[in-house]
Design a protein that fits this description.
Elements (H helix, E strand, L loop, with lengths): L1 E6 L3 H11 L5 E7 L2 H11 L3 E4 L8 H6 L6 E6 L3 H10 L2 E4 L4 H13 L6 H11 L8 E6 L2 E6 L3 E7 L2 E6 L2 E5 L3 H7 L5 E5 L2 E4 L3 E6 L5 E5 L4 E4 L1 H11 L2
Helix pairs in contact: 4-6
C-alpha cells in the first residue's frame, strides 16, 4: 500500500482526484490539504510516497512548498499553469495533469509513477525547481524556512545576498535568512536590473545603494542606505556601472 496526499486549494479539484483514486486500491489517501502550508505539514507528518500537487495556490504556491522539503516525495502536478511550468514538467516531473483531465489520463499518470518508483526523486525535483524558477511569477519573492515558521520575502525588501558555505544569507531589515541555494542560482533568477553580482560572494539590490567608493587597488565598496558596506570587485564594478548608467 502506497501513501498519497492531495494538495489543491479547490475542493472540487480535490474531490475529482479522490474519485479517480478509488480505482487504485493500492493507493491510500492519508491527507488532503487546501494550501501549501497544510501540505508541507502533512508531508512531514505522513511521509507519503506520492503527492498530487496544484501549483497556483494562496499563501505559497506548489513550487515554493517543494523548496521547503528536504527530501520531497514523488510529485504528479494537477494544474493549469504557465509555459515555464510546462517546460519544467516535461523535463523533470514524473507527470503533470492539465485541468480538466479524465480518469484515463489520471490512470496513465499513476502508471507512469509506478514504472518510475525505483528512480530517486530528490534530484529530479531539484532540477524541476531550477527550471520552474525561470518563470516571472517565481522571481518576485523568496520563501524560506525560519525554524518551524515559513517566511515570504518580497525581493524589494532584500538589501543584499551573501554566500555562506552551502547556503545564501538573504539580508533584510528584519535581519538575515538562510536559503539552501547557490549565488549562481540567485544571479540567474533575480531581476538583473535590480540585483547585481557585485562580488563573487555578494549580490546587491541596486536600489539600496547610495554611493560607490574606491577601496584598495581596483576594488570598490558599495554603501547602502543602512550604512552597510558591500564589497565590489573590478568585474562587479563594471556590472554596477552598466546597470546604474554611470
Amino acid at each position: 500500500m502506497s501513501k498519497v496526499i492531495i494538495i489543491d486549494d479547490e475542493s472540487l479539484a480535490r474531490s475529482i482526484v479522490k474519485e479517480y483514486l478509488e480505482k487504485h486500491p493500492q493507493l491510500e489517501l492519508v491527507a488532503e490539504c487546501g494550501d501549501g502550508f497544510e501540505g508541507l505539514k502533512a508531508i512531514q507528518q505522513h511521509q507519503p510516497d506520492l503527492v498530487f500537487l496544484d501549483i497556483q495556490m494562496p499563501k505559497i504556491n506548489g513550487f515554493e512548498m517543494l523548496e521547503l522539503i528536504e527530501q520531497p516525495p514523488a510529485i504528479i502536478f494537477t494544474t493549469a499553469f504557465d509555459e515555464y511550468a510546462i517546460k519544467a514538467f516535461e523535463a523533470h516531473a514524473i507527470d503533470y495533469l492539465l485541468k480538466p483531465f479524465n480518469q484515463e489520463r489520471f490512470d496513465r499518470a499513476v502508471a507512469k509513477w509506478q514504472d518510475q518508483q525505483s528512480a530517486p526523486t530528490e534530484n529530479k525535483t531539484a532540477e524541476l525547481l531550477e527550471t520552474a524558477a525561470q518563470s516571472p511569477s517565481q522571481n518576485n519573492r523568496i520563501v524560506v524556512k525560519n525554524g518551524s515558521k515559513i517566511k515570504i520575502i518580497p525581493t524589494h525588501d532584500i538589501y543584499y545576498l551573501e554566500a555562506a558555505d552551502d547556503y545564501v544569507k538573504i539580508h533584510t531589515q528584519e535581519g538575515y535568512f538562510l536559503k539552501n541555494k547557490t549565488m549562481n542560482y540567485f544571479e540567474q533568477v533575480l531581476d538583473g536590473h535590480q540585483f547585481v553580482r557585485s562580488h563573487r560572494s555578494y549580490i546587491v539590490n541596486v536600489q539600496q545603494i547610495t554611493r560607490i567608493d574606491p577601496y584598495e587597488k581596483d576594488n570598490h565598496v558599495a554603501i547602502l542606505r543602512t550604512g552597510i558596506k558591500v564589497p565590489v570587485s573590478r568585474g562587479g564594478y563594471g556590472k554596477l556601472k552598466t546597470v546604474l548608467g554611470l
